[in-house]
Amino acid sequence: MIKKFLSQDSKYPVIDFLLWLVVYPFVIVFAVAFVVFIFSFSEFKGAKITDWISSISAFIAMGFTGGLLIVTAKAAKSWREQRLPDARSAIIENLITYDGIINNLMIEFNHAGNAIRYEKILTTYLSLFNQLSIIESSIMKYYLFDLTQKKEVDELYLKLRDRLNDFAKEVSKYLNSSIKGKDITLNPDIIEKSVLMFTIIDKLKFDKVLNKSLDASLTLLSKIAGDNVVIKPNEKNNGCS
Questions:
Q1: 83-236 maps to CATH 1.20.120.330
Q2: pLDDT digit string (tens) for 115-160?
Q3: pLDDT value at residue 139
Q4: 176 phi and psi, to 5 degrees?
Q5: Angle ∠(142,221,148) on CA atoms, nearest 5
C-alpha cells in the first residue's frame, strides 16, 4: 500500500495512504486493547503487558507523524502542480494583450498617411507601460509555484522592459518632449497641435522599435509556454497564440 502511495499508479494516493496509516493501525490497536482488557496488569516474562502496549503505541504514533509529513509534502507538491498552469496562462494572456496594443498602433501607422494624432502614440505608450506592470505582477505569482527558470525569465523580462524604454525614447524624439516612466512633459508647441506630420521615415523608426518589442515578448512567451505550446511569429504578430 505504501509503495503504491509513493508511486504514480494510485488514482487516490492520499486515501490509499490514510487507509494504510489509520485503518490498519486502528485494527491492530483494537486487538491489542482487547488483549489488555483480558490480561490487564498481568505479566509476561517480567514485563507488564501494559508496558508492551505503551511501546507499541509510541511506535504507532511515530509512524503516524512521519506519515502525516509525507502526506503534507505530497499534497503541497500536488497543489503547486495544479496551480502552475493557471499562473503560466496568466503570463501568456498578459503578453498577448501587450502585443495587441502594439499591433493596434502599427495598424494606425499604416493608415496614418502623412499625419497622425500624437495622442494615439502617447496613450499607446502609457497602455504598454501599465500592461508591463501587469506582466511583472503575473511573473511574481508564477514564481510562487515554479522557480526553475527564474534567471532566464528575469533576463527576458528585462529585455522586454528595455524595448519599451527604446520606444519611449523614440516617442520623446518625435514629440520633442520628455518621457520618463509615466512622467511625460510635453513640448508646449506640441500641445497646441492635435495632428502632427508623420513621414515614412518616422514610420520606419517606430516600426523598428516596436518590432523589437514584439520579438522580446515572443521570446519571453516561448520560455513561459515551454515545449508543449507552439507559437508561430506571424500568428503572434496578429495577436494570436
A1: yes
A2: 888 889 999 999 999 999 999 999 999 998 888 999 999 999 999 9
A3: 96
A4: 55, 45
A5: 40
- Let me know: does 218 contact 233? Beta carbons within 8 Å: yes
Cα 181 to Cα 14, 120, 128, 170, 197: the distances in Å are 50, 17, 11, 13, 25
- 239 backbone φψ class: left, alpha, beta (φ>0; ψ -120 to 50): left
- Please give the Cα distance from 34 to 32 (Å, whole number): 5
Segments of the chain assigned E as strands:
43-44, 47-48, 115-117, 178-180, 183-185, 195-197
Amino acid present at 182: K
Q: Residue ranges per domain, the chain?
A: 2-78, 83-236
Cα(84)–Cα(142) distance, rounded to whole angstroms? 7
Q: Which residue has the cell 498481568?
A: 42
Cell numbers for 16, please give them: 490509499
State how beta strands 47-48 and 115-117 pair.
unpaired
Q: Which amino acid is at 100?
A: G
